[in-house]
């Protein structure tokens, strides 16, 4: 099935006001889905009945469908401001092995799971990339793999690029982006082959979901971000969290690197006469004397945690 989100730039009278109304409508329209995402994440969405005796949680059902991850992220990318959308997509191509600039132009829309006839020496078959991002100056073919399943492979990239070029209706530069389960070694090996074979192909990039999440979090925490963009990015980050993608900026590896002083815990504890009178009757026998506590070495504690984590 093919869906398309279109943004037209043919409004001239009071353009900014009309755009603001459109954005507000879009945000309100998706608020119901955002509430559903929260309900799924916090285990409040209930279960889906399968047959008469089995059921599955919405969380497990959601995580099992990679197409839901695709729509969760890119439906919202379409509603970002032009500046934020360009910034995010341009950053994704930082991992292009040739490190070239990418000129997007105006955003025209997104084709979800389009189907193309792929003609080859043995006949014809159907190829279905996850997305086509359409801009006035280029098109971007996107292949997505979920964080915990599915692998990228060269033959799939090759077929998707070739089938798109065979069926293209316009003469624009083409870019290819792979998201999820792709390493630099694969990218550096596959990209030159594709760029050599397909002349209209100008760039091949591959990124991991952790990178996507980290950049979105950085932008969402920016002091000068627009309220509209912040709301939409928060929604995308929530969707990534459902799939188990790291969205917390605090990492154990940062804790291990910290140089920590010894902490001495040696203080006078509270006695009952320092408590509020209304609690006195319940705690009248509770008296803490001066307590000499041993020194706690936080560096040793961090090392112990790290060792335990490796053995899990």
Molecular structure report:
The chain is 45% helix and 21% strand. The two termini are 43 Å apart. It contains eleven helices and twelve strands. Helix 1 packs parallel to helix 8 and helix 7 packs antiparallel against helix 8.
Indicate the topology:
Elements: E1 3-6, H1 15-41, E2 47-50, E3 54-57, H2 58-64, H3 66-77, H4 82-92, E4 107-112, E5 116-120, E6 123-127, E7 131-135, E8 139-144, H5 154-167, E9 174-179, H6 184-197, E10 201-207, H7 209-220, H8 227-242, H9 252-257, E11 262-268, H10 277-283, E12 290-297, H11 298-311
Parallel strand pairs: 8-9, 9-10
Antiparallel strand pairs: 1-4, 2-3, 4-7, 5-6, 7-8, 11-12
Helix pairs in contact: 1-8, 3-8, 7-8
Features:
about 300 residues, single chain, alpha+beta, six-stranded mixed beta sheet, two-stranded antiparallel sheet
Summarize the structure in short.
By secondary structure, the protein is of the alpha+beta class.
